[in-house]
Amino acid sequence: MRHTYSHIDLDERRKIARWRTAGISVEIIAEKLGRHRSTIFRELKRNTFVDKLIPDLNGYYCVTAHDMACERRAKLRKLAQFSHVRQSVIDRILHGWSPQQIAGRMRLERHPISVSHETIYKFAYSADGQAIKLWRHLPEHRARRRPRHA
Fold it and tell me: Are residues 25 and 60 in the same domain?
């Protein structure tokens, strides 16, 4: 059975903020939005504003939460944004390096732009990676990724 997932949008974040201010429980908010309660808990944990200087300002604000989520999402596109990093990753994969080795070497060399091994795998199995058949040079040589918990 396949599930389709969608990111929480600004409208849903407005509802979450309004209902949390009204004191409604996370379980009821999740039910009203048609999402799992862990999704709402994760949203509140990851996107709650914290001010160390003025703790009274701490809280969940929908616009701030949306900006935080968008900023975090933009960081995932490093290989698309930085062509020199992308080319370096491709070259190393073609020379037989594993994604773990590439990510580890970038951290060791303290590159200003580093990527995780998971980002490299996602790139290798993306449309761009499939076009140049990067998967053939990965340790497992699979054309498709297996689900983690299958």
Answer: yes
| Count: domains in the chain | 2
Do 86 and 68 sit in the same domain of this protein? no
Mean pLDDT of the chain: 88
Name the nearest CA neighbour of 20 among 44, 50, 46, 56. 44
Cα atoms in the Cβ-side hemisphere of radius 13 Å centred on 29: 24
Identify the three-state secondary structure at position 2.
coil
Dihedral sign (CA 71, 72, 77, 82)? positive
pLDDT digits (tens, 9 = 90+) for 73-109: 766 578 888 889 999 999 999 999 999 999 999 999 9
Q: Are residues 95 and 121 in the same domain?
A: yes
Query: Are 128 and 105 found together in one domain?
Result: yes
* Domain span holding position 21: 10-75
Q: Indicate whether 20 and 71 sit together in one domain.
A: yes
Q: How far apart are CA 111 and CA 29, in angstroms?
A: 42
Q: What's residue 1's pLDDT? A: 45
Instruction: Point out which residues pair with 59 in neighbouring strands.
Output: 49
Amino acid making up residue 130: Q
What distance in Å separates the CA atoms of residue 150 and residue 30, rounded to the nearest whole number? Answer: 26
Both structure tokens of 132: 């140049």
